[in-house]
Amino acid sequence: MNLFQHFQAEVTRQIEALAAEGALPAGLDTSRITVEPPRDTGHGDVTTNAAMVLAKPAGMKPRDIAELLAARLDALPDVTETEVAGPGFINLRLSDDFWHARLADVLAEGTAYGDSGFGKGTGPVNVEYVSANPTGPLHVAHARGAVVGDVLARLLKKAGYDVTTEYYINDAGAQVEILATSAYLRYCQALGEDIGEIPEGMYPGEYLIPVGRAIAEADGAKWREVDEDVWLPHFREFTVARMMVQVKEDLAALGIRQDVFTSEKELVAAGAVDAVYKTLSDRDLIYTGVLEPPKGKPPPEDWEPRPQSLFRATRFGDDVDRPLKKSDGSWTYFANDIANHLDKFRRGFTQMIDIFGADHGGYVKRMKAAVVAVSEGKAELDIKLCQMVHLMKDGEPMRMSKRAGNFVTLRDLIDEVGKDVVRFLMLTRKSDTQMEFDLVKAVEQSRENPVFYVQYAHARCRSVLRSAPDEVPGLDTSAAALADADLGLLADPAELDLMKVMAAWPRTVEQAAEAHEPHRVAIYLNDLASAFHALWNRGNEDASLRFLQANAPEVTRARMALVQATATVIASGLDVLGVTPVEELR
RNA sequence: GGCCCCGUAGCUCAGUCGGAUAGAGCGACAGAUUCCUAAUCUGUAGGUCACAGGUUCAAAUCCUGUCGGGGUCACCA
């Protein structure tokens, strides 16, 4: 239950009631009214701007409307206090019973707490992420996009959206040709030939050595006796397949398994790009024109003004029209990607989300333009840019060179700090701001490290629950017993504060999902952990606030319900992040 | 030169479809331990929200311009 939505409905209802009585004009637009937590908790639990929003259309003073509305809201059973404040805010305070009922919700729903029907009926959503060239193992630079995409998908699912996760394999361009040629060199090497240095422009990585060896073992020297146009397709396919196996393994190590893998090459082979071209031509969205070289900096050396097939991206908000064919007549990456997005649309996705690296920022407008064009405005594309992550080691920027013994692959990063740490820390910042990732601080057990701080709160909860039967003999901490606890015994302000943070979880899920901002989950968990640690330390100052009270089994039982619920909400949030909650730290 | 992202406390960053007196951690200072442990908590100090206009009852948030940092700019992906 999103309590703010609950009270939003209540506010609307009371406005209608006032209109029915003639105290307010009929037919007021209530869509701009918000009901939300006040920024300052001193202003109560729930606040609404209704009076200020309605003042102008109603032709009344905000405070007069506020007084009318407040009087009615004050009569609601869960509301203990109303106040009209500032320019016309209505602040509500809610009863302890209301918060106890939310605690009971958590106990009843378990980690499903926060699940929402928010996204129901909005149509299927496709989240495409990683989509790295299959020319080598995933790099650290891919980590952020991978985590952001995956957690966004999980978040959307929790909020009730119908979500499919997707990886677009860029296996059609010149890069995979180079990859195949590089693998061929390694194949020759495996046959015992001296290949010398790997030529400039080839992929020199050692990860291709086993690929060459595998082909040599399977086929012997047979590819040495044929022309390039014969061996190239085989090497391309074989190598790309091997690379994708590795990519999937690396992603699996991060806890990521995507639903659909779409091959660019197969799209092209199936004629999808030709079809897009024809569709756009038929609608007069393609013409032949000459692009101007970029201003303000010297044009590329091989620049030649030449007529090319251009998509009228400017009609859909882009800055220039974009080429669809290269000089050799083959499709541009962009043309293929239009086909990719049209394919998604044809598969029923009216909402698409792409996760890009910041270096693809210049590509955003044209892709959005293409999706509008190709779906005739029926599909929507949102693109989340992930800014760079600077790897640090104890405050010092890391040079990424293999020779220096530093690692460069995603797998190495995971091996160094663990998948849970990578996942959590990648989400402690907004995705479109640059961030630092310090390998030393990442595994430090201190307040500075949010992943530790949150895990520590969970571990503390679990520890208390484990030790409860020893401290308070005869105490039953089973789910049934906790569900039956007398929650009315939880009346201390610090206890209520904790319950209020828990009750904010369903709204957090919805808001984060709607904004496509998964980092809000990590921020929320930090807040929740903070409320729990604060309550914990109250027990150090005042022994009567400790969770375990040997002489008061009923109080203890109620507090165990609170502790259990805290662990549950933390686990629910960590589940969205794909992070495993720990039972103990030690 | 065009376009995109960013600019919030000394540092690293939050900031809810525009809401009231802008928050947290680190660092500084003063305190608090029979539960997982001072690995945590409480308090104090610290701000022209880069700058200038505009829209609004209300702007860190939206619009325009300027400055600063980063990214990117046919035929790579």
Q: How would you describe what is shown here?
A:
- This protein is α/β, with parallel strands linked by helices and 586 residues long.
- It has 20 helices and 15 strands.
- The structure holds one RNA strand of 77 nucleotides.
Characteristics of this structure?
Isoleucyl-tRNA Synthetase, Domain 1; 586 residues; 48% helix; five-stranded parallel beta sheet; 20 helices; Gyrase A, domain 2; alpha/beta; four-stranded antiparallel beta sheet; RNA-binding
What topology does this entry show?
Layout: H1 3-21, E1 35-36, E2 46-48, H2 50-58, H3 62-74, E3 79-85, E4 89-94, H4 96-109, E5 125-128, H5 143-158, E6 163-169, H6 174-190, H7 209-219, H8 228-253, E7 260-263, H9 264-269, H10 272-282, E8 286-290, E9 307-311, E10 322-323, H11 333-346, E11 351-357, H12 364-375, E12 380-386, E13 389-393, E14 396-397, H13 410-417, H14 419-426, E15 435-438, H15 450-471, H16 479-483, H17 493-503, H18 505-515, H19 519-541, H20 553-577
Parallel strand pairs: 5-6, 5-11, 6-7, 11-12, 13-15
Antiparallel strand pairs: 1-2, 2-4, 3-4, 8-9, 9-10, 13-14
The chain binds one RNA strand of 77 nucleotides through helix 2, strand 10, helix 11, helix 15 and helix 18.
